């Protein structure tokens, strides 16, 4: 099967112009690929560049050298040289990103935040409300909170809204940055089940999860970034 | 698959005020539905660039190609007639002024202000126009009962909402906003911002927003131009430019934000 994402000689150096032009060589020579249905955990000590790598794959950080190719509907797109609106398109349709913290437009209700994903993907239809309700119920978000904006929710509730916002969509690739960090055992299990069902649908998942026991329940492979740091 | 129509193409745009550089050698493209932010400190040439783009001043050099008709190639704005430019300004473009008092007729009712923009369109029937004006006041979260009041007596935030209603009501292709939330207090600003966000995302309208407030552009825009001394020093996807700035000036700008 063709990989969902492949990188060639990917490299990242930060140059801090206003701090004596300090150069931070974070990552180099990363040749990585992930296939549909795989769940790859990024590992390595704090500061090795796990988040930096993930952010490059999302177009959020600019690689210093190398290429990133993303598969969407049988075509590879070069993320490093794509136009802005093309990257935005890929983010709406190809890559779903569950960030560590929920970032939303203030005053928009939980329910609408989630239906907005479907709207963006052009899949909002008559049965959508049922689908959203079902996902929110699965994630233990109480019904009386659905019409509220999530700004005032607890950390764990916000994290589950964040997961629902992305998981409602139909993305062939998912990035999960610590998706269970604020969750109790019960809710962690629920989220892991949701992740497994995505894998069964052949979604390619890259994740950062510190807790090894949780990681081992879903990940098919580990990718240690300490092998790619400059000494 | 990922193909969008280009609606604006700017090449090597330069404007001098006598010997003084306003903006220099600016090039970028804008696609249908894209929202572009222009950031930079006071005097960096943001407003000069915006004025050139929106036909308020003629650039000294360079090309501004605009999509007047989707089925035709882009046309150079510097070469079309003044009359045609006026027609574009009335319908296809909207300019939201920093000071709403510059964009409104203060002694004409709120409804009348909106009507002015849509009256030359297909709707000529009075009650339809009034209905549409009410609809727009509702979208921008204004009290509908104020439709017959003069904007002279509105608060700054309300005046800005009215100006935005007025501009968007004609369904323009391209909207220019110059510091749309400047001069408003924080809570009014936040509310206005998400109103704008929700409306423009729904309309799929293209926009160019000038601001010195990074929070505003982070919230509203897809891509950014960072200007310094009349030149663009960095450009790209908004979150990329703000999270991983490459140029020393952008790094200075983003590291100067106070964390709340």
What descriptive keywords fit this protein?
heterodimer; A: 231 residues; alpha/beta; five-stranded antiparallel beta sheet; five-stranded parallel beta sheet; 10 strands; 25% strand; B: 260 residues; Rossmann fold; six-stranded mixed beta sheet; four-stranded antiparallel beta sheet; 10 helices
Structure, described:
The complex is a heterodimer of chains A (231) and B (260). Chain A has 231 residues and is α/β, with parallel strands linked by helices. Helices cover 33% and strands 25% of the residues of chain A. Chain A is built from seven helices and ten strands. In chain A, strands 1, 2, 3, 5 and 6 form a five-stranded antiparallel sheet that branches. In chain A, strands 7-8-9-4-10 form a five-stranded parallel sheet. The mean pLDDT of chain A is 95. The longest helix of chain B is centred in the last third of the chain and has 18 residues. In chain B, strand 9 and strand 10 form a beta hairpin. Chain B has a single domain, classed as Rossmann fold (3-Layer(aba) Sandwich), CATH 3.40.50. The chains are: A alpha/beta (231), B alpha/beta (260). The interface between A and B is medium-sized, with 26 and 27 residues.
What is the structure about, briefly put?
The complex is a heterodimer of chains A (231) and B (260). Chain A is α/β, with parallel strands linked by helices and 231 residues long.
Determine the fraction of residues in helical runs of chain B and give it as a percent range. 25-40%
- Give the fraction of residues assigned to helices of chain A: 25-40%
CATH fold-type name of chain B? Rossmann fold
CATH superfamily of chain B: P-loop containing nucleotide triphosphate hydrolases
How many helices of chain B in DSSP terms?
10
- What is the helix/strand order of chain A? EEEEHEEHEHHHEHEHE
Strand content of chain B: 15-25%
The N- and C-terminal alpha carbons of chain A lie at a distance of: 35 Å
User: Which architecture of chain B would the CATH scheme give at its second level?
Assistant: 3-Layer(aba) Sandwich
What is the β-strand count of chain B? Answer: 10
- Low-confidence regions of chain A: none
Biggest sheet, spatial arrangement of strands of chain B? 6-7-8-3-9-10
Largest sheet of chain B: 6 strands, mixed
**What oligomeric state best describes the polypeptide chains here?**
heterodimer
Principal-axis shape of chain A equals globular
**The CATH top-level class label of chain B:** Alpha Beta
